[in-house]
């Protein structure tokens, strides 16, 4: 029985390592796609050809074509840059600012905490997509504004998680010990509270990448998102909805890419968190 | 005496992460009917695993019985199916765990939990089950059982909850009760009450009890038979007298000796001749405001109430008292981890209460703290050298190499290998972690250390080693300690003077030996009487303090202790006693201090 369990464990770790490598490879592929799209995709994403409309996946069109005869694979490859920038930047901005707000309200006294958290509550009452529409409508549709809109909508979530973590960590023995040693607020925050509060934020951020892409989709769909020749993944996904019964590949493959990308980021984020934590380094 | 349960050559393996560890090997143990058997050992010795195996709950904890038999009523529990175990668990064998708060469901009332359990096993109506539950609560001496039934677990104190958990276990008149460290989380006074209750229940219900504990003294108080476990095997078993009078195995010997050592080697020799006063508190008070509804009068918890004391150079002042007596808060006030609401703290005669940043930093350099939780006091992401070097980085401008040198030096001072500096906190044992904590505290050569339950979480053998280290450091560096602990024997061992706290006030301060031999305050006496001892002749011949510590939100009038004091008079109820000098070095706050012999006799 013992031998059996050991074998199972070994298989598990082998599985997780190969999963990690696969994820890393996929993300690398997407990054390369976004930098050198022309080298990856054979067809131009802009070339419309009515005679090729709604073709099923074949050797020539690996993932099929859409209703205008554009190659889906090319669209995905060329759209990757947009999606990547939106997903990653909005998480960085939203997570960074939300984290800072959470840190301040978790660490500072009751008055600051209440003030910040009530503002976050107000933002939270406005549905994310509404918030994003508001920002886009005021600032006008552009990629940067889209990123800003998505970031603001995701602020309260990050702020709340960070605040909870900070509240918990600031009562840990080592923070008290650091205070009794004589270190100041900055020392305690930078060296003790921040590094120990970050892991859940990291997990949230990896999921946030996918969420941001999808939220940007919604905005693009409403015409408030990117004004670009080449649609991002989210917009591609929404295009495919109308043809789901006749040409499933139009919606399916962009969706697949979004899912795979989110899962890969998640796995990498997890691995990075484990790497940061000395407790799991042994195993 | 017939044998109720017999464990034969039991072996259990437990899965921990990726490893399979043999947790228990070849255990043989018999429990006669009506017998109390104590399983003693330090943490990780396999006591709990053994008890879980008897209930076959170990299957759910990632463990497996790999060999041997557990014979109960001519059935082998080790080979029964889980379904058949349901007929035994709760009905024939019941269990009480260490933490009653987690054993009870927080969202149901006490009554509902009883009704559920009773109706699970017996076909009775809700009303009948309810009445049955009240009878059970009466049996474990819970005051006003009918109104308790409608309360939620969080509304009851730890001692009360443990009584509830015991009553719940008694619901089906089990033949065997397994209690796993039932008193470890409780104060000595409440512990004595629970032990008395278990002894009483054994008589009434004629059940057998398998009592698991790490505390030898508790075992000596309650057991008929003791089995000592070490690293997964029973190294020795026999009657209490056999074990404590003639320990055979080396491990039992060290255990018994380290317990005895605590009692003998008290710091009675008044070796700190220095009369220089390091730290002084004058009328310190601390109130915590309670959350209140609007338009309601604000209420306060009186954590520390007008406490004055002084600590000399090279001296250890012990602080004892039940939980909720304010000892930890007082300690935090002394090292300015919290601000006092009134009163002053003098460091070497200088008032540091409302000090500037500079004097604060100076004070922090000279006063350090060692906490109870060895693990949480160390940043899990830092290596040992970063942890110990933190004070140097805050207060000095030493180079990296300079810091490393000092870290290695101080590691040697606390008897650790300098190679430890590259390890992480989770890679080292509890005792070693506490040495790291101590190393960090002494690296700046402070004058005063606050030791807040610093050894309470450690196993007995480790505990005595850490105490020895603290004593050695005190001698070498002339440190002053305030030592807070609930384990009275440890405090007696290390302290020169001891202060006894009750509801935020110090009721008595005296040199350690005198306090233990001739306590002047009735509370001090009650506290020491409740303390379990391995001296078998003193067993159970004692007066047990009844009731629990009152709420600090509305403490009793006059002398706080009058509600539990057997000698209280009208004067005690109306007038608070002040600290009175009894003799040199001894002060007590009692209208009728126990000097005269007849008053001591009254307490018997």
UniProtKB/TrEMBL annotation, chain A:
Main location (coarse class): membrane
Key words of the record: Cell membrane, Membrane, Transmembrane, Transmembrane helix, Transport
List the membrane topology term(s). Multi-pass membrane protein
Q: Name one GO biological process term.
A: transmembrane transport
**Matching SUPFAM superfamilies, A to Z?**
MetI-like
Q: Where are the transmembrane segments?
A: 12-37, 84-107, 202-226, 246-269
Residues of the ABC transmembrane type-1 domain: 80-269
Which PROSITE patterns does UniProt cross-reference here?
A: ABC_TM1
Which PANTHER family does this UniProt record tie to the protein? D,D-DIPEPTIDE TRANSPORT SYSTEM PERMEASE PROTEIN DDPC-RELATED, OLIGOPEPTIDE TRANSPORT SYSTEM PERMEASE PROTEIN APPC
User: What family does the entry list?
Assistant: Belongs to the binding-protein-dependent transport system permease family.
Q: What is this protein called?
A: Peptide/nickel transport system permease protein
Q: Which organism is it from?
A: Terribacillus halophilus
TrEMBL record, chain B:
Which InterPro entries does this entry report, sorted A to Z?
AAA+_ATPase (IPR003593), ABC_transp_ATP-bind (IPR050319), ABC_transporter-like_ATP-bd (IPR003439), ABC_transporter-like_CS (IPR017871), Oligopep_ABC_C (IPR013563), P-loop_NTPase (IPR027417)
Which Pfam families does this one have? Answer: ABC_tran, oligo_HPY
Q: Which residues form the signal peptide?
A: none
Q: Name one GO biological process term.
A: transmembrane transport
Protein keywords:
ATP-binding, Nucleotide-binding, Transport
Q: Name one GO molecular function term.
A: ATP hydrolysis activity
Mind telling me which CDD domains this protein's record contains? ABC_NikE_OppD_transporters
Q: What top-level branch of life does the organism fall under? A: Bacteria
Domain ABC transporter as annotated: residue spans: 5-256, 279-528
Q: What family does this chain come from, according to its entry?
A: Belongs to the ABC transporter superfamily.
Protein name per UniProt: Glutathione transport system ATP-binding protein
Source species of the chain:
Terribacillus halophilus
């Amino acid at each position: 029985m013992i031998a059996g369990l050991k074998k199972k464990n070994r298989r598990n770790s082998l599985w997780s390592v190969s999963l990690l490598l696969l994820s890393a490879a996929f993300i690398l592929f997407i990054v390369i796609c976004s930098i050198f799209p022309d080298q990856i995709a054979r067809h131009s994403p802009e070339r419309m050809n009515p005679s090729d409309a709604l073709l099923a996946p074949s050797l020539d069109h690996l993932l099929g074509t859409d209703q205008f005869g554009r190659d889906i694979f090319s669209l995905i490859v060329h759209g990757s840059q947009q999606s990547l920038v939106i997903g990653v930047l909005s998480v960085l901005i939203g997570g960074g600012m939300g984290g800072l707000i959470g840190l301040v309200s978790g660490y500072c006294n009751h008055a600051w905490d209440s003030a910040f958290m009530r503002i976050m509550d107000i933002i939270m009452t406005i549905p994310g997509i509404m918030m994003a529409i508001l920002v886009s409508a005021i600032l006008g549709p552009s990629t940067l504004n889209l990123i800003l809109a998505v970031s603001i909508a995701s602020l309260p979530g990050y702020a709340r998680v960070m605040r909870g973590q900070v509240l918990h960590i600031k009562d840990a023995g080592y923070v008290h010990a650091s205070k009794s040693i004589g270190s100041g607020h900055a020392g305690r925050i930078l060296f003790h509270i921040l590094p120990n509060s970050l892991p859940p934020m990291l997990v949230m951020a990896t999921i946030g990448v996918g969420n941001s892409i999808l939220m940007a989709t919604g905005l693009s769909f409403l015409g408030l998102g990117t004004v670009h020749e080449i649609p991002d993944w989210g917009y591609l996904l929404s295009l495919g909805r109308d043809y789901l019964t006749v040409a499933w590949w139009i919606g399916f493959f962009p969706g697949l890419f979004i899912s795979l990308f989110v899962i890969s980021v998640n796995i990498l984020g997890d691995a990075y968190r484990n790497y940061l934590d000395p407790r799991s380094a042994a195993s | 005496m017939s044998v109720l349960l017999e464990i034969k050559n039991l072996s259990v393996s437990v899965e921990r992460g990726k490893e399979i560890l043999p947790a228990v090997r070849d255990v043989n143990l018999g429990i006669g009917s009506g017998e109390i058997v104590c399983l003693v050992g330090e943490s990780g010795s396999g006591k709990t695993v053994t008890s879980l195996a008897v209930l076959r709950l170990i299957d759910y904890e990632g463990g497996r019985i790999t060999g041997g038999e557990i014979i109960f009523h001519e059935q082998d529990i080790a080979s029964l199916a889980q379904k058949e175990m349901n007929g035994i668990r709760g009905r024939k064998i019941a269990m009480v765990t260490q933490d009653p708060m987690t054993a009870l469901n927080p969202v149901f009332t006490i009554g509902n939990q009883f009704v559920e359990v009773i109706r699970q096993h017996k076909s009775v109506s809700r009303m009948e089950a309810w009445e049955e539950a009240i009878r059970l609560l009466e049996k474990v001496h819970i005051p006003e059982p009918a109104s308790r039934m409608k309360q939620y677990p969080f509304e009851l104190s730890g001692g009360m909850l443990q009584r509830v958990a015991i009553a719940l276990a008694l619901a089906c008149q089990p033949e065997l009760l397994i209690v796993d460290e039932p008193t470890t989380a409780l104060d000595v006074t409440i512990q004595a009450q629970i032990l008395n209750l278990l002894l009483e229940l054994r008589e009434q219900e004629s059940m057998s009890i398998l009592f698991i504990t790490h505390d030898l003294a508790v075992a000596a108080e309650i057991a008929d038979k003791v089995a000592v476990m070490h690293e997964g095997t029973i190294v020795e078993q026999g009657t209490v007298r056999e074990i404590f009078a003639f320990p055979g195995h080396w491990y039992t010997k060290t255990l018994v000796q380290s317990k005895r050592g605590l009692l003998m080697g008290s710091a009675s020799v008044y070796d700190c001749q220095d009369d220089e006063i390091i730290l002084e508190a004058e009328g310190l008070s601390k109130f915590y405001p309670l959350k209140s509804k609007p338009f309601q009068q604000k209420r306060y918890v009186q954590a520390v109430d007008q406490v004055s004391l002084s600590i000399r150079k090279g001296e250890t002042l012990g602080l004892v008292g039940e939980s909720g007596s304010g000892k930890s808060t007082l300690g935090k006030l002394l090292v300015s981890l919290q601000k006092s609401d009134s009163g002053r703290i003098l460091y070497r005669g200088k008032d540091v209460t409302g000090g500037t940043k500079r004097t604060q930093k100076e004070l922090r350099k000279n006063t350090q703290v060692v906490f109870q939780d060895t693990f949480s006091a160390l940043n899990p992401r830092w290596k040992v050298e970063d942890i110990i070097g933190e004070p140097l980085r805050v207060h000095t401008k030493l180079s990296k190499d300079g810091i490393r040198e000092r870290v290695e030096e101080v590691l040697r001072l606390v008897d650790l290998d300098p190679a430890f500096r590259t390890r992480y906190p989770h890679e080292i044992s509890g005792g070693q972690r506490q040495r790291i904590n101590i190393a960090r505290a002494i690296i700046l050569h402070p004058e005063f250390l606050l030791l807040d339950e610093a050894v309470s979480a450690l196993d007995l053998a480790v505990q005595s080693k850490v105490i020895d280290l603290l004593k050695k450091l005190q001698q070498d560096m002339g440190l002053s300690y305030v030592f807070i602990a609930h384990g009275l024997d440890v405090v007696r061992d290390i302290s020169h003077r001891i202060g006894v706290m009750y509801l935020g006030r110090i009721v008595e301060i005296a040199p350690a030996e005198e306090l233990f031999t001739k306590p002047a305050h009735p509370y001090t006496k009650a506290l020491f009487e409740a303390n379990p001892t391995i001296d078998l002749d003193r067993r159970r011949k004692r007066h047990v303090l009844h009731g629990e510590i009152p709420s600090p939100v509305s403490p009793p009038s006059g002398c706080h202790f009058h509600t539990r004091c057997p000698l209280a008079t009208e004067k005690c109820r109306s007038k608070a006693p002040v600290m009175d000098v009894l003799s040199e070095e001894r002060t007590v706050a009692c209208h009728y201090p126990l000097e005269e012999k007849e008053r001591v006799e009254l307490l018997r």
